[in-house]
Amino acid sequence: MTAKPKTEPTATKTEPAPKPAPTGIGVKELAEHLGTEPRKLRIFLRKTERAAGKGERYNWPSLKSAEVRKIEADWKAAHSKPEPAAD
Predict the structure, then answer these.
(1) Domain total for the chain?
(2) What integer is the mean pLDDT of 32-55?
(3) Would you say residue 73 lies in a domain?
(4) Does 57 reside within a domain?
């Protein structure tokens, strides 16, 4: 007697569609613009309640967008050295 070859199930898995590539700038580009490290910028963004959300990316249209200019102003205000008091 000959054994029948086993057939493998033909279950079809549907792969999730890949997310489109982000357009604009991300944390790396913004951190370079501000002269800092991406990690430090992400920490700052979370502290200032600008978190991207779990599993999400930080993304802005350009360095000239209003939101980026606000982040830049807040970053500079938070990281500027106070001037010494005049006696």
Answers:
(1) 1
(2) 88
(3) yes
(4) yes
